[in-house]
Amino acid sequence: MVKRDILSSDGSLMIVKVELEQGFLGDIDQHPEEQISYIEKGKVEFEVNGEKRILNKGDIQYIPSNVKHQVKVIEECVIMDVFTPIRKDLLPV
């Protein structure tokens, strides 16, 4: 399960709170927006451009523009994703 809440999408920045359940495996993603993911709760494995890294509460992952990435949830987690510019594909229609 994925639950997303857009907390702000002002100016050229967007912050999105993402809640993911244990065992979730995201699709391989790639987008032109830069991204920083802050792990607020839980434990995840991020694969960015072929490199895997385990992140725990308080850790941060930077994802450059147009780089393939994927997340695997080890423990139920909450991630705060910051994008610049705004990801218009995440805005409600």
From TrEMBL:
Read off the SUPFAM superfamilies from this record.
RmlC-like cupins (SSF51182)
Domain Cupin type-2 per the UniProt entry, residue ranges: 18-83
- The protein depicted here goes by the name Cupin domain-containing protein
The lineage, from the top, is: Bacteria, Bacillati, Bacillota, Bacilli, Bacillales
